[in-house]
């Protein structure tokens, strides 16, 4: 056959099929001819056919071996190898099930984490050309402040001067009370410049977006609804467009409905135009949450950063009072939204990779045991002419078949896993994250399958390739058990497994310990039976301070009288609420501090009795009373950190302080009391100096109410609270209702989740590696039955036998632990910024985890040792 | 004839035997195995499981060629014949074998 026709044939599957047919026919004929020949020699026809067929053997297998000669047709070889693999694997179901379970589990968890990584970190945000979008905040590196609010003036300057941004939009958090047509309802919303949504590339699905000019001049009372709000409150009524609804007691016109799932910034449900307001837009007032810019085509982030740096410097020179040391902080939008998840996710991905490696090592070990049992088969095959490459390929095909089965199982597990992962987000999966098993994830599974198959298949295959018939037969007749080299390979695999597990367990141990340290933090206030919620008064009827003070006095008095309530008070923000207003503080009679060494303090307004309600003790002086209401000469309470940093522990009572520098317009405030520190910033941020101003001196429309109750579940109070509020002011519904326990749990969800997940992976790793260790020791016991029998016959005691076997397992485990410790010393450094009050080289973890692993390893070797001890000498000898 | 009296083919000798039978005349697969049996007076049994792989291997090397024709029994069959290359190859293989078997004989004949 010419080269040409042969290659043509390879290209045409139909030709290949017809060749198969030819071969079939040829072999069938062989059997017929043989039978006819037998008949001619006088054998009855039936018997002749039977004998002919018997002599020929399986047509199928010879046909396959016939193809063996045609190496060029490797695809057919593959199909043949596959069939052969499936047959072989079916013959050893225990091995197959174990291997598929191991690989499936490994691939399942790895794929789940990868899918989350992909959904959160890799998939583009659901905005048009999202890579051009940049979040912009203010930053003051000297004071170590980042991601701070921006001022209208700075925003306008950027907009006028920047050439790297095609467009810049600004937004701010807001809340609104929606009323009319049902009970009033408080919503988390955002105010956005009219160009912001067009800039993002998101258009309403119904009606229109905001248009230029709708940011004041009487045209600003327009509203965009989220899909969810439209469905829930307006039952998807299309005629809502153009109709008025009441927002904070003012009529607004609904102009459009945004697409399903869209939310901004994170959970906003409705949007108003950001209105120009002289009160908020004063020059240095960093009042607005942030800006988002779209880079011009072809402009890099670096170019934009450089340009904004220049603009900031110019502003600082022109307006030193407000802008000195302040600059614009540019963060890619994706980084801004999910940046804090990157490190934990990558840690989880690394951890899960370890689990997969351990699973592979386990399967490789199983394959080695099985290869040992199949040595005769393999040696025979190579003796009758199967090349080394051929045997290798057959074994690899088997591994890949196993891996493919594992991948199927793993893929199925991952689908469930991803669903579980979605539930881990405390407020539902944010709209910009799409979790799911998509093409890329499936491709990842396929790559994993090939990689794992090669990983656990190559080693045994390579070993098998070295087989020589002579040595195999000699070994078998001598009953010497498996070759030393194979035993060494298996031992090395187990050592690697133990080492990997140790690394993983150490990392998990540190994170879990951190989580418990976080949970166990002394927050400094009462947590059980505490309930908080916010109330915002409509501006229309509460323009005067006296009106607001009267309302909140009445409300707090009535709340305090509810059955089960021990104390009721209020503040601007409760702990961990994110109400973290801070500023530089001046103390009367002190020289101005050098730049960068201002005393920064958290400041907020509190109602009388707030500390009592919170369970925060007063350590000096007095608390605030209803008489502390002079806005021009306010009385304030500070915390112990303030006394430590501002007065170096000296008595501060009677001293005066103000926000800003000595000459700022803020009034001098007199310190009348000191309270113990309590945690206000979200953990792990430590508490710093704080000043508490009397709320009633200014009285804001929004207050966060705190109720201390005797109730097991304080939320049972809510119906009574709602009734009470409705009777006082129907347009001020309570919102952000939460027990303190819920607040703390929500704050720590990420730490809890990463601890739990890594703990789970570590447990998996421990289980897999212990099974691996057990397998190696048990197998060597089985191999050494005769030797053990001889020893027992020669007078070895049960203790000695058990000791020898356990010693073998212990040596392997110790070697793994030693290597693992070395690796862990390096690896845990990568965890440093995920840890809280636990050092990366935490002694207890680095001692406890190896001990735990060693103990488990001892048990795993002890079990087969007990079996060995039961070996009766005669039985062992007879077994041969 | 009992199995003990039959000799297994030595590795590598099958190729030589196939080439030899085809040197005499084109044959189909069964014919080759039967001819070897006959020529060796039933001593050499070609295991069919090795025959066909060997045939395809030789075909691949282009020592033999196959085509569909009509067998002596009068049916359509795949007939194998020796190519020019195969003919040259046969001479080499035969010389190699004689050298080998002669050497083995001499060793066995030593006293």
What would you note in describing this structure?
The complex is a heterodimer of chains A (880) and B (111). With 880 residues, chain A is α+β, with helices and mostly antiparallel strands. The longest helix of chain A has 41 residues, at 333-373. Chain B has helices at 13-24, 29-39, 48-61, 84-109, and strands at 27-28, 64-70, 76-82. Chain B has a three-stranded antiparallel beta sheet with strand order 1-3-2. In chain B, helix 1 (13-24) packs across helix 2. The model of chain B is unreliable at 1-7 (pLDDT under 50). Chains A and B meet through helix 2 and helix 4 of A and helix 2 and helix 3 of B.
User: How many E strands of chain A?
Assistant: 22
**Structural class estimated from helices and strands of chain B:** alpha+beta
User: Tell me, what's the shape of chain A?
Assistant: elongated
Low-pLDDT residue intervals, each spanning 5 or more residues of chain B? 1-7
Structural class of chain A: alpha+beta
What sequence of helices (H) and strands (E) makes up the elements of chain B?
A: HEHHEEH
Query: How much of the polypeptide of chain A forms β-strand, as a percent range?
Result: 15-25%
The coarse silhouette of chain B is globular
Biggest sheet of chain B, in brief?
Answer: 3 strands, antiparallel
- Oligomeric form of this entry? heterodimer
Radius of gyration of chain A: 37 Å
- Specify the biggest β-sheet of chain A: 6 strands, mixed, barrel
């Amino acid at each position: 056959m010419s080269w040409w026709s042969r290659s043509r044939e390879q290209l045409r599957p139909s030709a290949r099929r017809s060749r198969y047919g030819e071969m079939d026919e040829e072999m069938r004929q062989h059997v017929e001819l043989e039978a006819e020949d037998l008949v001619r020699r006088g054998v009855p026809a039936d018997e002749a056919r039977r004998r002919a067929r018997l002599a020929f053997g399986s047509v199928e297998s010879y046909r396959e071996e016939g193809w063996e000669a045609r190496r060029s047709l490797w695809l057919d070889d593959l199909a043949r190898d596959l069939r052969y693999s499936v047959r072989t694997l079916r013959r050893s179901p225990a091995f197959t099930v174990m291997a598929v379970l191991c690989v499936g589990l490994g691939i399942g968890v790895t794929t789940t984490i990868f899918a989350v990584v992909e959904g959160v970190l890799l998939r583009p945000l659901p905005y048009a050309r999202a890579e051009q979008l940049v979040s912009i905040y203010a930053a003051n590196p000297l004071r170590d402040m980042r991601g701070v609010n921006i001022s209208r003036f700075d925003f306008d300057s950027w907009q006028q001067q920047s050439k790297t941004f095609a467009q810049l939009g600004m937004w701010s958090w807001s809340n609104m009370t929606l009323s009319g047509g049902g009970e009033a309802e408080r919503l988390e919303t955002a105010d956005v410049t009219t160009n912001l949504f067009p800039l993002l590339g998101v258009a309403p699905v119904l009606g229109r977006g905001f248009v230029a000019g709708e940011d004041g001049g009487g045209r600003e009372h327009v509203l965009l609804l989220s899909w969810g709000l439209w469905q829930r409150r307006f039952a998807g009524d299309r005629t809502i467009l153009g109709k008025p609804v009441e927002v904070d007691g003012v009529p607004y016109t609904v102009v459009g409905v945004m697409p399903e799932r869209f939310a901004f910034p994170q959970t906003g449900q409705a949007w108003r135009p950001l209105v120009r307001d002289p009160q908020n837009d004063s020059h240095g007032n960093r009042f607005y949450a942030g800006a988002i810019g779209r880079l011009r085509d072809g402009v890099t982030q670096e170019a934009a950063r450089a340009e904004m740096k220049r603009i900031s410097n110019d502003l600082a020179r022109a307006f030193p009072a407000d802008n000195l040391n302040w600059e614009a902080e540019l963060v890619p939008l994706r980084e801004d939204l999910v940046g804090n998840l990157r490190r934990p996710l990558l840690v989880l991905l690394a951890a899960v990779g370890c689990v997969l490696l351990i699973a592979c090592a386990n399967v490789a070990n199983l394959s080695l045991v099985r290869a040992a049992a199949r040595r005769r088969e393999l040696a025979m095959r190579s003796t009758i002419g199967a090349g080394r490459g051929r045997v290798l390929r057959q074994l690899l095909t088997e591994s890949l078949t196993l891996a493919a089965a594992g991948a199927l199982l793993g893929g199925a597990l991952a689908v469930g896993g991803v669903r579980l992962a979605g539930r881990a987000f405390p407020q539902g999966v944010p709209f910009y994250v799409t979790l799911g098993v998509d093409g890329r994830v499936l491709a990842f599974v396929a790559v994993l399958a090939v990689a794992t198959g090669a990983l656990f298949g190559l080693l045994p295959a390579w070993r098998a390739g070295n087989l020589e018939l002579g040595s195999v037969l000699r070994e078998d007749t001598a009953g010497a058990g498996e070759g030393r080299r194979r035993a060494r390979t298996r031992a090395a695999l187990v050592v690697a497994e133990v080492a990997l597990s140790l690394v993983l367990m150490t990392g998990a141990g540190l994170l879990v310990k951190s989580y418990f340290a976080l949970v166990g933090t002394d927050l400094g206030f009462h947590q059980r039976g505490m309930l908080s919620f916010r109330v915002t008064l409509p501006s229309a009827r509460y323009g005067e301070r006296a009106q607001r003070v009267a309302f909140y006095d009445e409300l707090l008095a009535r709340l305090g009288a509810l059955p089960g309530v021990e104390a009721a008070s209020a503040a601007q923000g409760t702990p961990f609420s994110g109400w973290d207003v801070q500023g530089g503080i001046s103390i009367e009679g002190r020289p101005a501090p050098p730049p960068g060494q201002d005393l920064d303090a958290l400041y907020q307004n509190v109602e009388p009795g707030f500390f009592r309600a919170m369970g925060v003790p007063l350590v000096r002086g007095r608390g605030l009373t209803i008489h502390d209401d002079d806005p021009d000469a306010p009385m304030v309470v500070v915390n112990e950190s303030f006394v430590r940093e501002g007065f170096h522990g000296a008595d501060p009572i009677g001293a005066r302080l103000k926000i800003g520098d000595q000459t700022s317009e803020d009034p001098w405030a007199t310190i009348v009391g000191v309270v113990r520190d309590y945690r206000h910033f979200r953990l792990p941020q430590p508490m710093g100096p704080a000043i508490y101003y009397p709320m009633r001196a200014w009285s804001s429309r929004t207050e966060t109410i705190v109720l201390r109750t005797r109730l097991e579940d304080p939320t049972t109070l809510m119906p009574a609270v709602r009734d009470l509020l409705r009777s006082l002011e129907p347009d001020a519904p309570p919102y952000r209702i939460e027990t303190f326990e819920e607040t703390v749990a929500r704050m720590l969800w990420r730490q809890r989740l990463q601890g739990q997940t890594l703990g789970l992976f570590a447990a998996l790793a421990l289980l897999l590696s212990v099974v691996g260790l057990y397998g190696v020791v048990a197998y060597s016991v089985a191999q050494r039955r005769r030797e053990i029998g001889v020893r027992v016959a020669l007078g070895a005691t049960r203790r000695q036998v058990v000791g020898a076997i356990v010693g073998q397992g212990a040596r392997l485990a110790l070697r793994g632990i030693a290597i693992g410790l070395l690796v862990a010393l390096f690896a845990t450094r990568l965890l440093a910024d995920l840890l809280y009050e636990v050092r990366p080289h935490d002694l207890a973890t680095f001692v406890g985890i190896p001990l735990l692993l060693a103990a488990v390893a001892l048990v795993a070797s002890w079990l087969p040792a007990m079996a060995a001890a039961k070996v009766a000498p005669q039985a062992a000898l007879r077994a041969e | 004839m009992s199995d003990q009296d039959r000799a297994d083919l030595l590795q590598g000798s099958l190729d030589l035997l196939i080439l030899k039978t085809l040197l005499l005349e084109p044959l189909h697969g069964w014919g080759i195995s039967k001819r070897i049996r006959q020529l060796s007076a039933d001593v050499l049994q070609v295991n069919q499981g090795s025959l066909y792989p060997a045939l395809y291997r030789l075909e691949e090397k282009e020592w033999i060629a196959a085509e569909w024709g009509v067998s002596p029994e009068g049916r359509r069959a795949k007939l194998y014949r020796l190519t020019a290359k195969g003919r040259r190859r046969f001479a080499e293989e035969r010389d190699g074998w004689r050298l080998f078997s002669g050497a083995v004989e001499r060793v066995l004949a030593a006293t």
